[in-house]
Amino acid sequence: MNAWPILARTFAIASIGCLLFPAVRAQDIKIDKSNRTIAVTATDSAETMADTALIHIGFVFYAPDAQAAYAEGSKTSNAIAKALTDAGVAKDAMESDSESIAETQPYEQEKLPPAEQAQRKFRVQQSWTVKTKANDAAKILNLAIDAGANQGGQITWAVTDENALEAQAAGKALARARAVASQMAQGLGIKLGDLLYASNQASEPRPMMRSAGVMGMAIGGTLAEKSAPAPLSIHPHKIQRSATVYAVFAIQ
Q1: Residue of 149, 152, 150 whose CA lies nearest to 78
Q2: For the segment 106-121, what is each residue's pLDDT rounded down to a tens digit?
Q3: Which 8-state DSSP code applies to residue 236?
Q4: Distance from C-alpha of 238 to C-alpha of 47, rounded to nearest angstrom
Q5: How far apart are CA 251 and CA 192, in angstroms?
């Protein structure tokens, strides 16, 4: 029997995979009459609702001297920490990002009247990232504001089990690859065989940020001394991960 038609047919099938997906070829596939394959690249995704929220909160106040700035900062810092721990936030779920006491820069005051400039000679600030359940994000943010936070409000949404979500995306991508390969085989009048090789490239995590728009106190009291409105209406985001799979199937 002449081997040339078999080799030509094998070359044609392998060429289809190379033409469609040249950029992601994971390894060289030997093409001969004993190795007849179809190579496919496919991408799919999986998503789930966020179950974790990372809330960025903090405060900034101005005072006429460093001692007054420190006193106000200490009072507000401890009030926020106590409010959150009393609400059940674990101490290791509240991480300090930054804190400082410094003279106010001239450009920050140049448009203010002299009397107000005198009250803003020093600036104290502190910020944290607080990890909590996604459904508790609005409550925790509201507690921090009531205790004196006046900066931040951004929320990073996440899922606890990133690996499970990525594995789900990879599984869907592999199923898509098999479906595409099966269609190719059917069009060529051949039967798809076993999976010989597969590689996966998961997507880079994309942090989901949402600002709650909490900005702005200067001097003269905290938000806790003002009114105490209801928490903002905050809803968790969906987290999505995608995966690209390169798969090589035998043909019969």
Answers
A1: 149
A2: 888 888 999 998 999 9
A3: P
A4: 6
A5: 5
Residue 90: DSSP 8-state: -
In this structure, whether the domain defined by 4-48+162-204+243-251 belongs to CATH 3.30.110 is answered with: yes
Burial bucket for residue 207 (CB in 10 Å: 0-12, 13-18, 19+) = exposed
Run of H or E residues at 177: helix 162-187
pLDDT tens digits, one per residue of 87-104: 999 999 999 999 999 999
Rounded distance between C-alpha atoms, residue 235 and residue 223, angstroms: 23
Q: Which two structure tokens, joined as six digits, stand for 75? A: 């009072």
CA atoms within 13 A on the CB side of 72: 25
Secondary structure percentages of the chain, helix, strand, coil, to 5: 35, 35, 30
Domain ranges of the chain: 4-48+162-204+243-251, 49-160+206-240
Full strand arrangement of the beta sheet holding 238-251? 37-49, 238-251, 192-202
CATH number of 49-160+206-240: 3.30.70.2970
Query: How far is it, in rounded angstroms, from Cα 72 to Cα 106?
Result: 22
As a whole number of angstroms, the distance between CA 28 and CA 153 comes to: 51
| pTM, entire model | 0.70
Q: Cβ of 108: how many Cβ atoms within 10 Å? A: 12
Task: Look at residues 177, 201, 176, 241 and name the one whose alpha carbon lies nearest to residue 46.
Answer: 241
Rounded CA-CA distance 98/96 in Å is 6
